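Sample log: 3-hydroxyisobutyryl-CoA hydrolase.
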Amino acid sequence: MGLPEMWSFMCRFNSFKRTNIILQHLRRSMHMDAAGEVLLERRGCAGVITLNRPKFLNALNLNMIRHIYPQLKNWEQDPETFLIIIKGAGGKAFCSGGDIRVISEAGRANQKIAQDFFREEYRLNNAIGSCQKPYVALIHGITMGGGVGVSVHGQFRVATEKSLFAMPETAIGLFPDVGGGYFLPRLQGKLGYFLALTGFRLKGRDVYAAGIATHFVDSEKLGMLEEDLIALKSPSKENIADVLEAYHTKSKIDQDKSFILEEHMDKINSCFSANTVEQIIENLQQDGSSFALEQLKVINKMSPTSLKITLRQLMEGSSKTLQEVLIMEYRLSQACMF
C-alpha cells in the first residue's frame, strides 16, 4: 500500500471512528434517566413541570421531551388535575431552546435520532396548543427557540423583568420553528416577521407588550404566584385567570415604560410587508433611517437561505392551523438538517 492509499485509509478510519463515538454518546444519552433533567410533580390542584438543566440553561433534549409528553397527556385526562404549570430551574433561564449540539451531531451521525427529536418536539408543541387544561408557563429568564415552543402555545404565559425572548434561528442556518410559523404572523402588524428575520431580542415587560406573554409579574412575586395557583380548590379557567390578573395588576416594574419598538412600528409594518426578502432589503435601504439601516446590517449577517425559508414559512403559516404549521415545519427541519 503506497502513501496516498495509506492516507486515504487513515482518513476513512478516523471518520468512521468519530462517527462511532458520536453514536455511542447519543445512545448513552438516549438511555440516561431523565428524571433529574425534568421534574414532574403533582402539587395541590396542579401538575408542575420543572425543566432542570440549569447548567445548560434548561435546554431541551429528547429524554426530557419523552418524559413531559406522556405526563402532560395523563394530567390532561386526570379529573384531579386542574392546571399545568411549567417553569425552569436556576433562575437564569426558562429554556434556552433545543440542545443544538446534540441535534447537530445527530444530523451528521444518525439521521433517525434527528428525525425523532424534531418529530417528538413538535408533537409536544401541538399537545400544549391543544391541551384541554389551563397551561401556565412561567417564562422567567432566557426563553428562546424550543423554550418558546413549550410556552407560547399554552393558554397563559407569565413574563418577568428578567425575561429575554428571541427566535435567533436565521443566524444559525435554520428557521423559527416549534410553531413559529403559527404564532409569529399573528402578532401585531408585521412585528412577527421582523422578530423572525432579525432575531431581535425582547426583554422584560416588552415580552408582554409584544403579545408573547399574556401577563407580567415582578420576579420576586413569582414563587408566591405559583403557590397561590397550586392552592386553588378545583379552579376554573376563570379562577386561574383572576389570580394571574391580580398579580399582573399589582406589578410596578417598568409599568409606565413604552414598548421598545413602539416608535418603529410604522417602519416595521411598511418595510416588512413585502413578499420577498429582496424587497424587504430594498424597503429598508429606501427608508434610510438609522433604525432601518441597523436592521439592514443585521439581516445581511443572516443566512440568505434561512431568510427566504423563514419569510415563506410565516406567509404560509398565517392561514394554517398550528397542527398544519408543525407538519410543514417538520418537513422543513429535515430538509435543513440533511
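Observation: The radius of gyration is 22 Å.
Observation: The chain has a mean pLDDT of 91.
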